[in-house]
Amino acid sequence: MCLIFFIAPMVYASSSISLNQVSTWAIGILGLTTLMLVVYLLIVIFQPERF
User: Fold this and answer.
1) Cα(13)–Cα(11) distance, rounded to whole angstroms?
2) pLDDT tens for residues 1-51?
């Protein structure tokens, strides 16, 4: 997951504790899911006749 390589350094920099690999993967998957939901909702808003 390429998203982890972009998110993980920001998460590590903003927190005073170190995160394990599972937490990093969870944050990456959450970010990817959020991005997919935003794209879906934008498509539904701007092209409602398809649904």
Assistant:
1) 5
2) 566 667 667 766 766 667 677 877 887 788 889 999 999 999 999 998 887
The count of residues in the chain is 51
DSSP state of 16: S
CB 28 within 8 A of CB 4: yes
**16 residue type, one letter:** S
- Helix intervals (H) in 1-51: 2-14, 21-46
Burial 4-41 (b: 16+ CB within 10 A, else e): beebbeeeeeeeeeeeeeeebeebbeebeeeeeeeeee
